[in-house]
Batch of 2 targets.
Target 1
Amino acid sequence: MKRTRFLIALLVMLVAANGYAQDSYRQAVKEYQSNLGGYLKMGAALHEINEAFFDQSGNVDLGQLTERYIKEVLVDQMTDMVESMMKECKVTEADLRTVNTMLAAPEFQTFLAHKSEWDEKIDKVSDECISQLMAGGESEKIQVNPAIDAVYAAKFQKMWKDSGIEEKTIGLYDRLSLGEMTEEIAKIGKYKTWLTDNLDTIALNAAYGILSLEDIDLGMKLFTNESFRKVTDTSDMNIFSVVGPTAKLLTKYLDWMESQGAKPNAKMQYLKMFQNLMKSPNRDVDEE
């Protein structure tokens, strides 16, 4: 009898310890997302989406409804997605704790704020280019801003190489499963070629006036940290593997908003028609 009670007690302890470990890992993921500002960025994106898919109604405040969604749903939803990716990439809790300790420091929070501005500037230039290329136009090679001095450029290039950002970005396109080449995929390939030739210059020009020399030092310290490199590894991802989970997240958001009384506009109706078409059981037959 004593042995039975001992085994039961041991089982309870193991289950409790396992539950704590899982909760502890999940909490570390949440802290990582919070330190990076991931929840804030996604929340801001959802507010922008409101204007695209919903009509403002006197009965429903879209902004307040979105804030409710962020608190009640988004944090757990994003944590589920990121936690799954982290575990697939064999990221340990110790890795997350190491990165969180670095990112939580005031100087790194300042760096991340500046990096966010830098990222936005890079995205703006890149988006303008891809719009031109997808429309059938051409984009010229980007030239280095002549105001950038040699010391700044050299230090930036060292950080840029250490960061692996260029390899990660281009790698997303390299791992596309092309199958039968389509016109759209061909255009994406054209954009990838342009990006390969220009991303380092775009990044340098965008950094100038935003990232200080101190920021670049912090960037090199962060980007060369082994745990940070593991946490941000994208070697097993491609564009579609990133877009898929994000699309599901946004679809759940749109459905939730509508269920809470948000009034969908014409664009939402078109989106639903497209989604239903993609789910149609006759789609494969029709394509043949």
Target 2
Amino acid sequence: MWAHGNAGPHYRIALTDPTHASAVVAADQFLTKLQVGLSRSAGGHEIFEAGWRHLVCLCLELKGYVRYEYDLSGFPNYEASAQRLDWILGRLTMRDAFPVASAMIVDRYGAEF
């Protein structure tokens, strides 16, 4: 599946195996139920709101369910202001926060999805 956003970001996601389809749906539902709690525990970084779908896709890729390609160069605030990410006790831009957060989510919850 391809997706194109306003101002230029684009995304491509593909299952690594057709049998992963139900796992991808279940993982998305599981992570979406955790979204508010994850955001609160991480200090409310904007990746949990404006970048939520991208974050989920990164988690799915780390689990090996999908191949995920993207270009977020036109995504608002992607490389702009750094925000607090309490999980590391520091401030990160969206670009830097996505890989940190996805790895932490998969490390903590990956066995459940």
